[in-house]
Design goal:
- The structure is a homodimer.
- The relative contact order of chain A is 0.13.
- Chain A is an alpha+beta fold.
- Chain A is built from 5 helices and 5 strands, in the order H-H-H-H-E-E-E-E-H-E.
- In chain A, a hairpin with a 5-residue loop joins strand 3 and strand 4.
- At the A-B interface, helix 5 and strand 5 of A face helix 5 and strand 5 of B.
- Strand 5 of chain A pairs antiparallel with strand 5 of chain B, so a sheet runs across the interface.
- The first copy, chain A, binds a DNA duplex through helix 2 and helix 4.
- Chains A, B: Keywords: Cytoplasm, DNA-binding, Iron, Metal-binding, Repressor, Transcription, Transcription regulation, Zinc.
Chain lengths: ~160, ~160
DNA sequence: TTATGTGCAAACTTTTTGCTGAAAG
DNA sequence: CTTTCAGCAAAAAGTTTGCACATAA
């Protein structure tokens, strides 16, 4: 009987294995960071989090891994405005979508259960096999009938967006 | 009576004027290029088209203009994968969406009349005022039951995508 | 006439890559 | 043992910006 000494494989690591990827220490760490993320980190942020678990990791590796996993369909790239790509694990069946607050870049997730099925039908009707989709909604927070409109509202594309 | 010698203002130029923008020669040209585009040009492409109409224009100006028009809500930025931002005029009411062929980057447009109304409701329910949305569907062309599977299929992100 | 826009080239930011040593299978 | 991966630093790609001149209103 083999004794399991290491922490169980993370969900993303599982998927990597299923896709036949060679599991290096670095990939395992990045996979774990991704599995534990419940937000939409960009490469910098993934790198930061990975470096905490294992400092002998480089940004280049994070870039290469993230690209690889995207090609395998394990990760999805998002663009919420802000100049850098952000990533989240692909969820099959239980898709969620994003509402981005244009004033501060904050991201709110929402669901629409019928949506994915509908999009698969659209793809099918156009002669395509569904691979993935993105739905991004941009909005401004509605003020709850409170007046002070002289706020310093950042308007242009900013670099450090949240969530 | 004033004689109109110049070509009529382009649709985008109209919008610029309505937004109180100073109309320089360059902006007029870019506005026209945008008005006449029925695809999703990136900055390079806009620059190329604009340079045909007026060669004393620079890429920097195209970047600045495109950014300005996006901030004014006249243009919308898209990311179809391929590393550069692509632009199209905002359409109010008659939104269309994009299906991207993951194998060759080609973009097909499709409509869904109920969709925008539904998204406005979602935004509203979450306490936001609808600003804009993006919907991108990625798919692989379904082979019409014809077998030859040994094709040289480009897989990674390529730089010169179509449409 | 004044505020704003433009061209140019340099700077910046994000992402990719060539090369050499390392490690997975 | 062979093939693929990682680190590093250099380069590429896309986009922004400072400055001096030009131009719209």
């Amino acid at each position: 009987m083999t004794l399991k000494v290491q922490a169980a494989e993370s969900r993303i690591e599982q998927l990597c294995i299923e896709h036949g990827l060679k599991m290096t220490g670095q990939r395992r760490v990045i996979a774990r960071v991704l599995s534990e993320a419940d937000d939409h980190p960009d490469v910098e942020e993934l790198y930061r989090r990975a470096a905490v678990l294992d400092s002998r990791i480089s940004v280049a590796t994070v870039y290469r891994t993230v690209r690889l996993l995207e090609e395998k369909g394990i990760l999805e790239r998002r663009d919420f405005g802000g100049g850098r790509a952000r990533y989240e694990a692909t969820e099959h069946g239980r898709h969620h979508y994003h509402l981005i607050d244009v004033d501060n870049g904050k991201v709110i997730e929402f669901e629409d259960p019928e949506h994915e099925a509908f999009m698969m039908k659209v793809a099918d009707r156009l002669g395509f096999e569904f691979v993935s989709m993105r739905l991004e909604l941009f909005g401004k927070k509605r003020q709850p009938a409170n007046a002070s409109s002289g706020k310093t509202t950042p308007r242009s594309r900013r670099k450090g967006d949240q969530t």
